[in-house]
């Protein structure tokens, strides 16, 4: 898998890290949502035992092995100008248009 980032998105993700080490985990949160899950980007300190690293530049991106099939091979993550959210798309689908970053570092 690969996530393409534009300059605004790279800048916002770097701001989210706030100068601290961290990795971005693509995660469908199914807790208390009553649906198939809500896509969030979690900042984590490192991968869990079931995570796979699928990209390392310019940031490290992870996803859980069991959720890998929910994503496409090539995707685009775009920061929303003037709004603290992101949109994740591919050539075939819109994964989400109000994706938030959650800092889950300990």
UniProtKB/TrEMBL annotation:
InterPro entries assigned to the protein according to its UniProt record, in alphabetical order = ATAP_core_dom, HesB-like_dom_sf
Question: Which residue intervals define the domain Core in the entry?
Answer: 1-102
Pfam families found in the cross-reference section: Fe-S_biosyn
Give the protein name, as stated in the record.
Answer: Core domain-containing protein
